[in-house]
Write a structure and sequence with these properties.
The chain has one domain (about 1-125). The radius of gyration is 16 Å and the shape is elongated. α1 crosses α2. It contains 2 helices and 4 strands; from the N terminus they run αβαβββ. It has a 4-stranded mixed sheet, covered by helices on one side. Helix content is about 35%, strand content about 20%. The chain is α+β, with helices and mostly antiparallel strands. A hairpin with a 4-residue loop joins β3 and β4.
């Protein structure tokens, strides 16, 4: 019983470490995207908005689906989409305050809490089923 409990504790710690690494990676990618030092991703979006006034991603039901296979590509694709399409009626996104993982019975979501240029706060939902937990190389193990 003790070994099982210890193993469960280790698994929980590894899961927490993975969530922290994804958050750190996302923050770094957002900073790099702001500086223009990220290479553009190739067609990362399945459903980009067709009308700048019809915002996508403001709910789970209207989440932006990111069509990437790996977290190294999916996380930057979220920030690329946000930079190009976030807060279209409010002057664009000027800050991501927080990123959190959310889920329902069918999907996993990254929720980015943003501040628009005019001070409006919005949450954008990204469906991350295609890449969540898939790494080309595990961070810190190469």
């Amino acid at each position: 019983m003790g070994k099982k409990l210890m193993l469960a504790g280790i698994l929980v710690l590894l899961l927490i470490a993975l969530v922290v690494l994804v958050g750190i990676s996302a923050t770094i990618m957002f900073i790099m995207a702001e500086e223009g030092s990220l290479p553009p991703t190739s067609d990362p979006y399945i459903n980009p908005p067709t009308n700048k006034y019809a915002e996508k991603g403001l709910s789970r039901q209207d989440a932006v689906v990111i069509n990437e296979d790996y977290s190294e590509e999916g996380i930057p694709a979220e920030y690329d989409w946000l930079k190009a399409n976030g807060c279209p009626n409010n002057g664009g996104v000027v800050e991501v305050e927080m990123q959190e993982l959310d889920e329902d019975e069918e999907h996993l979501y990254d929720v980015l809490h943003t501040v628009c240029a005019d001070g409006t706060k919005k949450q954008y939902y990204f469906n991350i089923d295609n890449f969540f937990g898939n790494w080309k190389e595990m961070p810190g193990l190469s």
